[in-house]
């Protein structure tokens, strides 16, 4: 019955107690039950309450996504799970650090394109740049694609973070 | 009550006592010696020394399932913890509250590959409801109280508290359970009134309804069982149950259709297939129950009552989902039902009961008895007839004997039937029986076993003897791993690859070697006599009941088939099993 439903991409925001092993529990749930993780970010968001926020981008049928949400909520240190994709309008951003090595025309072209993408140069030598780029994931994908023939050597991406639009929490 | 600081080990014992723990099932070792020293110094909590840590967890499960109280396990680090993993997984699958305390190497040695070190919280993360590594004695009382709360609350399950040895020596102040409240974990107990009203509307309109109940009703407690019985009788609807739910509704009641699922009755499975309303209370649409999902009860509305939101719409999409505890929801359901100004629902069901009567007439649990060889079904029937007048507790191992016990031993009360349903753990029954006997010292406790399963945890007979626990082990000995053999017959051309045990022990001598009593029976005429002797013999007894080697367990829904596609007996068994079915377990 799951085959008849199409695969969808969803962004889940998970508020958890920042305790030892909590990330392993969340990741273990995905690997143990065969769910996909496209991207995952985690950091403490409230030092006093000792809570962390995990953002997971996952792909599955609506039935599987709903099951993922329910399974996550069942974990003891999980406070709250919000499916940002279902909940309503939300924004998502990702940051990338991108190293491009080269000289001459390719170097000039890389710098020119970085301006078009509003990337920042945060490190440079005579033969290299490190660009910092923030945006939606497909924007970063596009920039990385353009840098590939221009001497791309390394990409480091944060993964997606998301938050709901408007005055409501999460 | 003294407020003097205590050692971590002392805090553990104090916390266990305040949690009402009466018995610990455990096995000592280097990393738990301080806790064992505290056990030695007190006499309020009993300790049962098992012979293998897996046995400790199954014993705790048997204790928990027969008493409704959490079972407590104590194991050492490394192999002590890894040996407990099967039992913990079993308890997770069957939602049994178990609190397992494990020793760990000292905190400064963690990660150094120290002697008997293993990553216990890492290994048990996937097979517990939750687990903790306690790095400070000051946290111990809180964590232990939380551990009991998590194990018992919501959908029950096993938890592990891993305690490094230095923390067991470290001193700290005690905190009582009244002062501990878990930060986040609050399972929902009351169902949504809106959904309950929707459910009542469906119940009022149904023409071919059925109750399908599971272990959740039993886990919820006696009140849930009582409310279920009242509600089912008030509606006049038929009721079936999963393996785990047997006993919640009395098997001697005319509305009872017997167990459903792969080896369930013809009437239960056909009624599930043909119903127009299914009321699932505390069951989880397990694959043993549903058979082929796309042919599962195709024309019914489905109500699902479950305390675990992740059970809803996991395998089967339902029309009305009610998240809550079975007793709470049944209470509200009954109240709304009674207050709604509708005619009593017993009317209008005559046609449905008539059809059920036709299915019942198939007499799907019948078998061809024999005068010369003991049929396993006959042995179970006799066991039932000769013990039904007492308060008898039945545990099982896993395989054909388990299904025959479920089919032919009839349960009228909850908490009398302890079996490994979800994980299907061979070796469960004997240690579970020990746990049951600890909870019910004066009652008759019988492990219905197979000769292959019993050998997996046979060593626990030594435990039973040591504590004078008069458990009875009733082995249906067909020399085969019978369920494996049955599947090889149905799916693999009768090539019985490695399913025959060519060198079985003499079970009578084996029992005697453990200082227990061994009995053997080979003729149908002697079955009653040996059962009576088993019951009246003091202390643990092993009965080697030599049965028909090639009897198969029917009825059966072949894997990948639908409820209305049952095999009733050997004459149907030649039907082809689909390729899709062959890959299913």
Provide a quick synopsis of the model.
The complex is a heterodimer of chains A (170) and B (585). Chain A has two domains: 8-87, Alpha-Beta Plaits, CATH 3.30.70; 91-163, ACT-like. Chain A, domain 2 (Alpha-Beta Plaits).
Compile the SSE list and pairings.
The complex is a heterodimer of chains A (170) and B (585).
Chain A: E1 8-17, H1 22-32, E2 39-46, E3 51-60, H2 62-74, E4 78-83, H3 84-87, E5 90-101, H4 105-116, E6 120-125, E7 128-135, H5 137-147, E8 152-157, E9 161-164
Antiparallel strand pairs in A: 1-3, 1-4, 2-3, 5-7, 5-8, 5-9, 6-7
Chain B: E1 6-7, H1 8-18, E2 23-26, H2 33-40, E3 46-49, H3 53-67, E4 71-75, H4 79-93, E5 98-104, H5 120-124, E6 130-133, H6 140-152, E7 158-164, H7 165-169, E8 171-172, H8 193-205, E9 209-213, H9 215-220, H10 222-235, E10 239-241, E11 256-259, H11 266-274, E12 277-281, H12 287-290, E13 301-306, E14 320-323, H13 326-339, H14 350-360, H15 376-387, E15 392-396, H16 400-408, E16 417-418, H17 429-439, E17 444-450, H18 451-454, H19 460-466, E18 472-477, H20 482-491, H21 507-513, E19 517-521, H22 527-536, E20 541-546, H23 579-582
Parallel strand pairs in B: 2-3, 2-4, 4-5, 5-7, 6-7, 9-10, 9-12, 10-11, 12-13, 13-14, 15-16, 15-17, 17-18, 18-20, 19-20
Antiparallel strand pairs in B: 1-8
Helix pairs in contact in B: 1-2, 1-6, 3-4, 3-17, 8-13, 10-13, 11-14, 15-16, 15-22
